[in-house]
Amino acid sequence: MPVSSTVHEVPRYIGRYEIERHEAEGGMGDVFVARDPRVKRRVAVKLLKKLYSTDPAVRRRFEAEAEAVAALEHEAIVPVYDFGEHEGMLYIVMRYVSGGTMRDRIKAQGRMSLRDVAAVTDRVAEALLAAHERGLIHRDIKPANILYDDREIPYLSDFGVAKASEAIDETGTMMLGTPQYLSPEQAQGHDIDGRSDVYSLGVVAYHALTGAPPFEARNAMAMAMAHVMTPAPKIRERVPELPKVADGVFDRVLAKDPADRYPTATRFARDLKDIASGRWYLVKLSSKLGLGDTRPPPSAPRRVPPPKAAAGPDDSGTLPYAQRDTESTLQEPVIRPGRARRAKVEED
Ligand SMILES: Nc1ncnc2c1ncn2[C@@H]1O[C@H](COP(=O)(O)OP(=O)(O)OP(=O)(O)O)[C@@H](O)[C@H]1O
Ligand SMILES: [Mg+2]
User: Fold this and answer.
1) What pLDDT shows up at residue 297?
2) Which atom of ligand 1 is nearest to the CA of 96?
């Protein structure tokens, strides 16, 4: 675990930023609320611990990542405005997001509603899609890195920060962050791609829906092993009122092998949204009637007609598109979500 370096004295300035207060201590350093006198706006300044600041390899990665993230400019990602060095420590200046984190919400509510979880997953998935298309992997998707603004709109934060700390891992000095949301491939130190973030987003959604992450373990190593070896308990064992299809969706997003997982976060988000709205029932029905997946793909207009194989009946309780990614030219049906949802829950 990182060595604690809680600030005993709040600095008056970090770079040109006037510090107003200490907000929180995170895994890699302290977060301050500050004011940027140049553009007269409130910002959040994260001051990384010395541990992360002295290694030149960390600095180089940090700067490269900060630039890449700044170039992303996605509306669901907390923007990084600036970075620099304060008394030998690296700092990152980002938008101040005032409404607390998803971790706070799970703590306060015990669990979050399916509708809220589907909404936040959908937004984070859009951010991940944009990043993954540019080869950027977040690596530390967790409820503490999802921040809400004062209108309850969620944003993904700390893009690239985990990557900066990886140079430290390579020296064997420390293990990365909390292992609760680590993908199996991360836990094993394998090369990763965007599907690692897809898994972590699945763990976040599972945690939010059930009130607990899928695995409990005494230490980081045991937790990492669980991600690699132990199948996650079926989500309906913990939340029986969810429809049967939810088990298939979470089996797929939490698959140990990335090849068995949803290829993109948006596909997972779409399935979750369909469960929340009740639209899954219609999708299943149209599959049984031989119509295939009647919805457009999550982020591109579809042009390819559905392959025959996609039209078979679905005995697994899994949405047809949770098993295979099919395309269709049919229009998305319009339904009344509340009604369809009730019908589905009763049936299952
Ligand atoms: N941009 C921001 N605006 C407002 N508050 C923030 C911002 N970034 C972080 N915080 C607050 O600071 C806390 C600590 O954040 P920090 O990112 O340092 O730690 P963490 O997310 O718990 O762990 P990690 O270091 O792995 O990201 C957050 O839980 C949040 O309350
Ligand atoms: Mg964070």
Assistant:
1) 64
2) 3
Identity of residue 265: A
The CA distances from residue 339 to 215, 285, 291, 326, 342, in Å, are 34, 15, 22, 26, 5
pTM assigned to the model: 0.81
| 298 has pLDDT over 90 | no
Q: Is the pLDDT of residue 10 over 80?
A: yes
User: Nearest Cα to 223, choosing from 142, 124, 145?
Assistant: 142
What three-state secondary structure class fits 82?
A: strand
Domain boundaries, the chain: 13-278, 281-296+324-348
For a ligand 1 pocket test, name from 31, 43, 97, 186 the mutation site with the most ligand atoms within 8 angstroms of its C-beta.
31
User: What are 158-212's pLDDT values in tens digits?
Assistant: 887 766 665 454 444 444 546 899 999 999 989 999 999 999 999 999 999 999 9
pLDDT of 280 reads 78
**Which of 77, 101, 182 for mutating ligand 1's site (highest number of atoms within 8 Å of CB)?**
101
Domain 13-278 superfamily per CATH: Transferase(Phosphotransferase) domain 1 (1.10.510.10)
pLDDT band at 336 (very low <50, low <70, confident <90, very high): very low
Distance 143 CA to ligand 2 centre (A): 9
Set 116, 140, 271, 274: catalytic member: 140
Residues 246-268 as b/e (b if ≥16 CB within 10 A, e otherwise) read bbbbbbbbbbbebeebbebbbbb
For residue 140, indicate whether it is catalytic: yes
Residues 6+ apart with CB under 8 A from 278: 335, 337, 338, 339, 340, 341, 342, 343, 344
C-beta of 101 in contact with ligand 1 (< 6 A): yes
CB 121 within 8 A of CB 269: yes
